[in-house]
MaoC family dehydratase (Rhizobium helianthi), 162 residues
Amino acid sequence: MQVEISLKDVPALVGTELGVSDWITVDQTMIDAFADATLDHQFIHTDPERAAKESPFGGTIAHGFLTLSLLSAMNYAALPKIREQTMGLNYGFDKIRFGSPVKVGKRVRGRFTLSEARYRGAAMLMTTYDVVVEIEDEKKPAVSASWITIVQFDPKDRPETD
């Protein structure tokens, strides 16, 4: 069950790990669908036999951008819902690192630590999360990133700030 918090509570949570997502299995069907969507059919992603023979990975691996894109699903599963939020937007990333490949069949999950929260204008809260995408049973993460999002809300719901 997803936790719900108030907009006024968010700034006090800076520095706190706010959630860890459920595990997501990255299978060949997912990798192939991503390859089709992005037109990236490099053999290390889409040809299990060739990848087993010619790559150092022993089989196919997920695209780094596929792993990164799973942050959206992980976010919804792990982070508290902000009661006053009317919409959420991706703003961008300050830093992304692909630390370790995700081999086909592996499970990944995201850890989200709120590193910054500041109001912008009358109806936006900009949040920055330090995110790590872990690979089950591996020490090195698949992805580490600083992810910036915007929480949109009705201006009448903006809390008083000091």
